Every structure is written in C-alpha cells, then in structure tokens.
Amino acid sequence: MNEGSGGPAGKDTAERERIEIELLLEAIFRRYGYDFRNYAYDSIKRRIGHGMRALRCETVSGMIEQVLHDPLQLQKLLRYMVVNVTEMFRDPAFFRTFREKVVPFLHTYPHIRIWHAGCSTGEEVLSMAIILQEEGLYEKARIYATDIDQEVLRQAQSGIFPLHKMQQYTQNYIQSSGRKSFSDYYSADYDAVIFKPSLMKNIVFAQHNLVTDQSFNEFNVIFCRNVMIYFNKTLQSRVHRLFYESLGMFGVLALGDRESIRFSEHENCYEAIEPNEKLYRKLR
C-alpha cells in the first residue's frame, strides 16, 4: 500500500486507499462478523499491509474480493490484523503489585471469577494461574480466557510454549515475587515446554469479540492489557462500558501501561489501587 507523497496526487492516493480499507473492513464485518471498523486507522492500515504482502495481494480492492469469496483467505488475513504480543509475567512490577494489593482482597471471597479479555496465546492467563496456586486461591477460582482469534485460543489451550522463551519468563517470574522455582510448573521436551495440567483445569477458553459481544458474567477481576491501544476513542468507550458492566462492586480492572480509565465515562467510578500501576477498583 502506498503512503502518499503529500501533494495533490499523494492526497488523492491516500484518500482512495482509505476508502478501500474502509470497504474491506465493512466487508469483513458484514460477511463474517469481525468488526475492525473502529480500530485506530494507522495501526489497522499497517497490519492490512503486512497481510497483503504475505498473501501476495497487490491491492486492497483485490483483497476485498478474496475475503468475500474465500473464508480461508480471511482467516489468513486475520493472523496479521490481530496483534498477539505477550509474555509470561510481562511487566513484573505489575504482577508484584497484584500479589501485594489485590490478592489479599481476593482471599475474602468464597469464589473468584477472573476474565482475561484478549488473552492471545495465554501467557498472562498462565501467569495468573501460577499466582493463584501460590497464594492458595486456585481451587476457588475460575479463569475465563477469551480472544477473537480461534487459532491463538487453541494454542493457549495447549499449554505448550517455545523452550527458548523460558529464560526471559523465568526472570520475569522471579522479579514478580514468584515463590517457587519456575521450572516446577512445566516439563521440557526438545525445543518446547508444556505447562502442568493442574494449572489449566480451572481455565475456560472461549471466543469473544470485545467489539460486538456482550457481558457474559460478573467478575472480581478483569485483565485487558495492551488491547485497547489499538482501538479508536469510540471503541475504547464501548469496551470500558462493557468492563464496567461486567465487574462486581469493588472488582479490579487491570490495564496495560499505555492504557488508562482517564477521560472515559466511568473514570469517577474507580479508584487507583497503586499510583504507578494500571490497577483500578470499582467503587460505584
């Protein structure tokens, strides 16, 4: 896709390209129900460009024709349109704060429901399962791990991850105040590791689209980290409203380091649990 030169011809090209992209997103929504129409334009444009190059499609109009007539092409394009960047105990200070400030609160409940929205390949879901086990909370907890992408959900449900990532994950775990040896939680087999089934038994994996789907339970904690940075203001407001409606009173909302409840319609309904981390408690 062209970036445009900035002159009249460049502006004309950029305008035509934007129309094509909007038509592609509308086609994907009307044909398959995936709604990317309110994603941040520059971000979705980049991802469509990556997908087109990988699929050897020269024009956005050509991609529209392909995805309308071939569901397999749509699934291939989705690999590039959905961002799946994650790691276990990412931002260790965040998870350390969660242990110190949120876990004591969770001990007061007879049952715990936690929603990982946009869970990707499941690294943060397993991080939560480990924390809950170490804190004696796992047996009374149910973790709901959802994502728009069925393929990453299958990967998350397998509990299998590349061996070469374990060194970084181990460091993250230690810095997050992990209580045991991280290797106790998985077994290695050649170039991959598989996490213990005991970590997976209370996790429910399901497809859920934050853009179009509704609330499906009441939760004590909702994790949605580094997902809304790809949404425009309209979609961010929609998702904030969904999370507010899905949290029980005094429930905790966990966001990514570049996300915030500031300027959302529910800003005054939360208090910050820790000034340096994006953890918020619902008060009203």
**Count of runs of 4 or more consecutive helical residues:** 9
Tell me the strand percentage band.
Answer: 15-25%
Distance between the termini: 47 Å
Overall pLDDT confidence: 92
Domain CheR-type methyltransferase: 20-261
InterPro entries: Bact_Chemotaxis_MeTrfase, CheR_C, CheR_MeTrfase, CheR_N, SAM-dependent_MTases_sf
Protein name: Chemotaxis protein CheR
GO molecular function: S-adenosylmethionine-dependent methyltransferase activity
List the SSEs and their pairings.
Blueprint: H1 8-32, H2 41-54, H3 60-69, H4 71-81, H5 92-106, E1 112-117, H6 123-134, E2 141-147, H7 150-158, E3 160-162, H8 166-175, E4 186-189, E5 192-195, E6 203-207, E7 219-224, H9 233-246, E8 247-255, E9 270-272, E10 279-282
Parallel strand pairs: 1-2, 1-7, 2-6, 7-8
Antiparallel strand pairs: 3-5, 4-5, 8-10, 9-10
Helix pairs in contact: 1-3, 2-4, 3-4
What's this entry about, in short?
With 284 residues, this protein is α/β, with parallel strands linked by helices.
Question: Which terms summarize this structure?
Answer:
alpha/beta, Rossmann fold, 7-stranded mixed beta sheet, 3-stranded antiparallel beta sheet, 9 helices
Structure, explained:
With 284 residues, the chain is α/β, with parallel strands linked by helices. It folds into two domains: 8-81; 92-282, Vaccinia Virus protein VP39 (Rossmann fold). The chain is 42% helix and 18% strand. The protein contains nine helices and ten strands. It has helices at residues 8-32, 41-54, 60-69, 71-81, 92-106, 123-134, 150-158, 166-175, 233-246; strands at 112-117, 141-147, 160-162, 186-189, 192-195, 203-207, 219-224, 247-255, 270-272, 279-282. The strands form two sheets. A seven-stranded mixed β-sheet has the order 6-2-1-7-8-10-9. A hairpin with a 6-residue loop joins strand 9 (270-272) and strand 10 (279-282). Helix 1 runs parallel beside helix 3 (60-69). The protein is globular and about 60 Å long.
